[in-house]
Amino acid sequence: MAATRRQNEAISTHDRSLVVTAGAGTGKTYVLVQKYLDLLETRGVTVPEILALTFTEKAAAEMKERIRRALSGKKGERWERAAVDFLVAPVQTFHSFCAQVLREFPIESGLEPGFVVLDERQVSRIHGKAFEDLVHVPSPPPVHDAVVRILSVFEPSTVRAMLAEMYGKRLSYRQFFEALGSDRDPVIRTWTREVNSVRENGIRDLQNDRSFNAALTTLFSLANRYEGADDKAVCFLCGIRPLLDAISGDSDIEVFCSAATDLLTKRPGNAGSRKVWKGNDLSLFKSAYKELNDILKRKSSLFRMTVDPADPLVTGAIDLLGDLSLVYHRYTELVEREKAVLGGLDFEDLILHARQLFLTNEDLVATHFLPRFRYILIDEFQDTDPSQFDIILAIIGIPSPSTDCLFIVGDPKQSIYLFRDADVTRFKAVREIILTQCQGREVHLDTSFRSTKEVIGGANYLFSRLFASAEKPWEFGYEPILVSEARAGDAGSFELLLPPPGEDSAATKWIEADMVARRIQSLVHGCPVRVYEEAEDRSFISRPARYGDIAILLEQRTNLSSYLAALARYGIPFYVHGGTGFYSRQEVYDLYNLLRFLHLKHDDISLAGTLRSPYCGLPDTDLFRIAREKGRNFWEKLQNYSEQTGSEGAVRACRLLSLWRADAGRTGIVPLIRRILSESGIYTVYAALPEGKQVLANLEKIVAMARVREGAGSYGLADFIEDLRTAMDEEEREGEAPLDALAENSVNVMTVHAAKGLEFPIVVVPDMGMQFRETFPPIMIGDNPLLVGITVPDPEGDFELTKTPMLLALREMRRQKERAEKKRLLYVALTRARDHLIMSGSPPANPDLSIRLATSRIEWLFSALGITDDAIAAGGMDLVNGDDSIHLTITTDPAAIPAEAAKSTPELLVVPEECAGMSGTWSRKEFDKGPEGIEIISVTDLEREHSSHSPSACKTVQSRYLPGVDGPLKGTIIHEVLRDRDPRIVCREYGLNYPEAPRQCEAIVARFHSSPLMQRVKREFCELPFVITYDGRHVKGKIDRLCELVDGSWVLIDYKSDPVDPSDYVKKAEEYQTSMDVYVEAARQLVKRNEVEGYLYFTETGDFLRVMRYEEAN
What we know:
This protein is α/β, with parallel strands linked by helices. Helix content is 50%, strand content 14%. It contains 47 helices and 29 strands. The strands form 7 sheets. It has an 8-stranded mixed sheet with strand order 15-16-14-17-21-11-23-22. Strands 3-2-6-7-1-8 form a 6-stranded parallel sheet, with helices on both faces. Strands 24, 25, 26, 27, 28 and 29 form a 6-stranded mixed sheet that branches. Helix 5 (94-104) packs across helix 19 (347-360), helix 19 (347-360) packs parallel to helix 21 and helix 24 (505-526) packs across helix 25. Mean pLDDT is 87; it is low at 733-743.
């Protein structure tokens, strides 16, 4: 593609260092590749002189493949040599670069030359063993005593989590414990300074907040208006007026904290008389005070955030951290010892050892690295952590105007790895170094080649407001993105679904998931949209959307099962991608339980799970009887039960489990699992399930994982079971096994993190209404390593564990960083869309809440987009941003989305290869009905038998609905829509493709439901099947509609679509007398009531006719 002016500037500028900020879809990878090629072509450098670094194996592989393809297309000896050199070019991840450096200089790094890189599974096992040794293996007295004191304060699981957290940030904690052991006073002074700074900044932000000041303004206004009135609510408001004055404006921090704390104890109750308060003022007062109280409660930690060196919480924290220092150092020794046994390093070790090598061996760096790399290209720089940043600075040397080697590319708005300690502030730091010390240049890539004007316009409007503040080090402003010329004419959409709330949170989740599934089905079938495919000539070709074009991006997996169930309910194929849900699959749990029992026969829980699973298939009634048998454990009880009862299922379970137990531990893991899968018949069971292919693929993935780990040596069944348990407990990120054929046309379900770097024609971002979750580790350390926070027993509060001021401050900083990252996570999610973007979430309780105080993404959306009740009622609004305007479509009624639940259809069987070409015959097997075979007759046939004359000649009227459609077909269509199927789907299904047909069907449904009789309905049942004995005959049929009215009586309704003149209704009813008698009798038996009234409903006129039973009428 032709480069834009700014892309060309980034590609061709080589005489100074550059920092390139690249928004989503602006061609960042293209610029990197072209920069690499241009350096080779114009600067006379060779491939080994260019170091290209990125942060994921996938990104490195993509960059390498693009450069390789470009090199292969160039002719000449120089380019041929470059292509050969590129086979071993330093285009790699940070971790692989560090591993390469350490292998090159192992002695200088203090490492064994043949070290291996440990994976997450091995590291987790090492930490588990180290903690067990720490607790159970004797340590030197000081350490032992410290361990006992720490375990007397915290639960073992908490201590284990604390130690793992500290080890993950071992460089910072090493600095802290060294400072604490040297002199406590500087540590306490740092705590005081940092805590006061956090508190003051937090309160100043609150005083400048729009929502906070709006609530105060309302309360002040009402206090002035009603001052002196004889009313309890007015007295309350005037009584708190001094406290409101104390927290308004730029009041002193201490005064603010004291007043805010006092306000949190004040409650107006139900005070207030509407005789005194005018209009809606009383409600306005209560809502304003509640909002102010909620805001103060949310920020209450700021008011307790003070450091007094004599405070028992502070002195207790110092003593506890002293003990923790001894415990942590012992734990570190145990972890390092286990690593040494394996001769391995974890990923963090690679970075830390390389950093140490570069910082402590200046001569080595000057000799081997400064001259080696002429240019350094770094992609995704926003994901850098502090140690990686130190390595980069060490390689380039002291930054100066002559430093022209750095080319940094990133988008700080896409920094979403805070949980991995990615530090987005480093992007600001390196930008400052390049612009000032290196006197380099910054280039903004501002044209998106990915998305339509609707998607880009919506993102520009939203994020120019969400990213309006860039005051904090971790905040960044927003540069609007332009639409490329190639995409300017393509039509997209920007949409918001606002599902109605349910009775509880579970119902609300179900409604939203159902609405999302309906919308997805309608995108493909109900109201198909068009998407665009890029052709070889870079133009875009329009085509109808397929399920494979759609991605559901989840911020977290909390509601994953709800969305999968909804997709299945509407017959929508889906594929769950990496990072979501593999270890929570039932088939994984079942195999884990089985393997665990084979290894530990006394594990009753695992055995019970195995017996209930498809491997054995015993019902709960059998498990209940087994539990009552004699035996020391469940296995002995099962054996006794099978011997005494001869139960087929129990006997089979005993036989198979005994055979498999004999193999467990004596054969390899893979042969054992293969034998289990073969002999249990599980393939047949799972193959019959709707998602059987996915289940079987997941089992094969388990087998493949076992094969890889077993092949590494010294790995047995116990290790595999432990790894599975750890992965389940820690919700280890692992995707389901890929199904290529299935995934081609399946909705993609993945987390936002997994979607980073990807794009889809249609993106759905649900759960926007979920409240932000706050989870903090039990111990925290700040960017300044001297600031450590922890909970300690409070001697003034019955020794309850209490958060220290330092922990409160660190949590507040972390909260602000996480809020900023959540904005960036939303940016990543929304900018994955190429053509159509759909957001979904329950409407916020407080749509006017400020962006700073918002507690959900939907509140951000309402605040930033200015969504009002009028816009919701109108079904959308125009978003005007300068000269650009796009339309936001808002849907609140799920029924307005044309979709219907799927019908279950059997899958065709494939003829096995060994049967190909063979022929045979098949005949239906005849079964003996026995001496008293039962004959069942339909209501229609019974009606014909009872009819003694031809149908009466009734006068007809001109058909108002579906004219020209023959009677039986018309009746079928009307029955379908009256049982609440979507009229558009039904009409299309039966070949009525003219637009008037669905509208007429909708009119029939609306007229029926608005009738006086239906307005009295409490509950109803449609198309209710029955078989009863009537007049000595077995009769089957379906009741069109059976309704219970609000007074407790029951009525049944039979639809008639004949265009009959109302004067002949009675005559027409006589034709259906027998049918109505049968229906009434069936209804009486179903509802167990003697009195059920029967009605004919004539759809042409909307009239009901009560039909008396024959015996009543005569």
